[in-house]
Please model this.
Amino acid sequence: MKVLETDRLILRWLTPDDAEFILELLNEPAWIRFIGDKGVRTLENAKNYIVTGPMKMYSQMGFGLYMAELKEGSTPIGMCGLIKRDSLEDVDIGFAFLSKYQNKGYGYESASATLRYGHEQLALKRILAITSLDNHASSRLLEKIGMDYEGTIYLDMEELKLFASI
Model:
């Protein structure tokens, strides 16, 4: 199901058919470094990640992480979406892109559209974002889309930067 459209991208719900892409994305060095190793090593692991993560959140919350595809050719390039974690009071925005599609403005394009969607369509008053302390590129992107740095927090025994949009 298509959720958002930008100038160059379509953001849509993930399905088990996206397992090959998810397997590649979750094993990117930047994903493992900044987001964490999810232990997804097979197509079956990737399908399970999609079903128990994004698809479960769609059914429970009506939103989740979305596949980001290029409009031209429907090429999958990353994920961007909204997540409700038990460990955070408010919904947060998350994004990740294959390394070959980074630094081309896709992160900004998808994250700014997702943030607007969260506020305008889902009526979320406050949207958060978290990044590792050394993920400077994501911190810059979050500030560029209008989020404010609020300090650091501890989640799962890791110190993270906290950003918010009100």
Remarks:
- The helical segments are 19-25, 29-34, 43-61, 106-120, 136-144.
